[in-house]
Amino acid sequence: AESVPVDDGWFIDDFRVKDAISSAATLEGDVKANASVCSGDGTTVCVDDADCTGNGTCNFPQCGAVCNVVTADLKTDPMGALAAPGQVVELSAIDSIADRCSGGVLQYRFWIDEDDGGTGIYEDGVDTLLRNWSENPVLLQAPSNSTNYAADARCSAATSCEGTAHNTLSVTCPLGSTTITADGSNNKNDFQIDIGTIDYAFAEGLISNVRTGSYATS
After folding, report:
1. Judgement on whether residues 128 and 78 belong to the same structural domain of the protein
2. Which residues touch 198 (CB under 8 Å, ≥6 apart)?
3. Is residue 210, in this structure, part of any structural domain at all?
4. How confident is the model at residue 45, as a pLDDT?
5. What angle do CA 129, 131, 134 make, to 5 degrees?
6. CB 89 within 8 A of CB 52
């Protein structure tokens, strides 16, 4: 076929470059002091080896401690006193923080303070361990009475860097008489109580034949 102009391809002749600088950039040296110290005594501040004559070499500052401070936190959900024994409460230490934890993560331990009224540190064999160290910051509980809960938080890369938080959870004791019903229609001793949990003893037979003491006689 005879060649036509449209077969000659595309011609681009309009290049636009945005944000180009109008002149060469000027480079400046970083003259800020590095707070380096001489290796000889570890305290003399230096800029280069000339500042450390007879006192070793001038070393760059170290990265610092892996962890300095852990501030533990322990909250309950729901907050405040529980309405009755056996209700579920969530313990959360997720708001615990560390100033740093280089190369590690926060770990958590939950326990009950049995002897210090919600102010002490964990004592093996004295306090009740609920869950040992793990990376899970949440634990579910269903206390039967008021309990002094505690949570420890630590940096996994520096386990001695830890903190403790306490939270005393009150459990309301039901007032007045509760209603207990027994259903013997299915030959089973099925009991229902309108609130909380209760221990019971059951005796079957004529009430006149039931012994006195812990059982009613009339």
Report:
1. yes
2. 178, 180
3. no
4. 86
5. 135
6. no
Nearest to 95 by CA among 113, 112, 77: 77
Question: Are residues 56 and 85 located together in one domain of the fold?
Answer: no
CA distance 86 to 91: 15
- 42 lies in which domain range? 34-63
Radius of gyration for the alpha carbons in the chain, expressed in angstroms and rounded:
36
CATH code where residue 142 lies: 2.60.40.10
Cβ pair 74, 166 in contact under 8 A: yes
Q: What is the DSSP track for 23-72?
A: SPPPP--------EEETTTS-SEESSGGGGTTS--EEPPP---S---EE-
| pLDDT at residue 16 tops 70 | yes
Q: Is residue 87 part of a domain?
A: yes
Number of compact structural domains in the chain: 2
Summarize pLDDT for 131-141 with one digit per residue, the tens.
Answer: 999 999 999 99
Return all residues near 14 (Cβ < 8 A) that are at least 6 apart: none
